[in-house]
């Protein structure tokens, strides 16, 4: 028995990261799977008549140890991985997929669940219990419980292969990201770059024993170079390297993996009686059908396209006038957009960054959470962490009761994938009368402090931090009975509401004055800069909207159709991007082969949900604006009906309880400056 299979003898029952050895994982998983199987057998072999408690509730509480080990292991595989962990992941994923199928394809277990489901009218259940019963029943029917034996076997094989392909896809992207280095030894090649970015590039080179400067495909290195570097040829080189991840016809190529994943998802949906993978996924979403998603995306496209084309034309003319650029390319996008933004608003990230020292921004997020929801954050060093960069906090309510443990991990490393995400190490639930509080984490990739400067964030990074912190609040403030309905366990097109609404506070003077102070002088951010942030917030909003819509449409083009006829990933993608493309296509690049959201993460048939949730968040924030952005009554309603409820009720019902009405898209179009 490994340390992972015993109760953790730690403060707040946190994960004992430093004591876990890599060789512990595989035996721990196997033992936990055996324990979980025994718990399932106990439910199945119970001779009492199936009822809600002995079947549905027992099922939701089963496998707790396995879930805990899985969350620790797979979170580390994203944030602090290595070859050994990746190898274990390849071994473990099929075992977990097999176990999951052992449950959903267990006929005797399904009979008990169905017996409870068929008698639900007479059970006098709470809303949460009804939701759980419905979810458990669908968990079986949507995963093959009603299939014949041969089809069940095929389903098992599909799930096993899919789980391995998704892992392989992600490993390839991480390897491609780590493999590429732009090593510069001539300082003139860095012309245009801010001092902070130069210093970071020099420090990176030094850390690898090299002279000069190193630029990589990690966001804190890549984005400043693409935004500020005057050397167009080097921007092109970097852009092509970034855009060709998984598309180099070598051993890290993802083209066949993409085709295979799409095909397996389609076959799985067909086995279960659905037209496509998107039809299967969207049955459990607010949007309900692919037709609704496509019409939602195309309706927004119709509104955004004229603005986007106008903005693009303006950018083209600007680049032509400034540098005689005949044809604007993708590697010119950030560079000339930044220059145009500076010209129009006299505002750039370098002016703003001194006011956004990472520690101050974290503190700002905490103050907002305190003013809205009465939360207190105390940094503690009594709990174990998986890397020295990780910050750990105890979160309490106004009465000093524990709300959550919070981990924050902000800087890039070789073992960490790009991007930003929120996750959980331990779920919230009420069991045996005790409310078990969650352990929540956010992971980002911000610029590390250098010898001369602390970590200073771009405004975009500020909104990213608030976004992930919004997800974290959804996890922390969870207050449901059952673990599978807790926190962020909600419909996928509802999950982005808490994260996206919190970004709105970053644009408000009332908020910025609380934390945006100059890291050297302590001066509060000047009013004129706040005005400029607000004025520039809709800059190129048409182009930004088109970009998001293009990703949503690409996702639906893979998953809302029969993909059997797609033979060429790139050709398919070019076609899918047809109505949304502004820049010339780059032959060497392909997005699908590194589109981790839909081929590795959980966003397949769900990428539209960012825009869907924007409609919700713009409408919800208008309510805050009407009553005051720190209005306690509105904040309490948001906490009561959205943040604490998890997936206990239909999200539209919860939203209407909070807002008093269904969301209106006009709020989003108003905020984006797209309503004429």
Summed up:
Pfam families: Peptidase_M3. The protein has 27 helices and nine strands.
If you had to describe this structure to a student in words, what would you say it looks like?
By secondary structure, the protein is of the alpha+beta class. It has four domains: 3-146, Endopeptidase. Chain P, domain 1 (Glutathione S-transferase Yfyf (Class Pi), Chain A, domain 2); 180-243, no CATH class; 255-322 and 541-599, no CATH class; 354-537, Orthogonal Bundle (Neurolysin, domain 3), CATH 1.10.1370.40. It is built from 27 helices and nine strands. A five-stranded mixed β-sheet has the order 3-4-5-9-6. The protein has a two-stranded antiparallel sheet with strand order 1-2. Strands 7-8 form a two-stranded antiparallel ribbon. It comes from Winogradskyella echinorum.
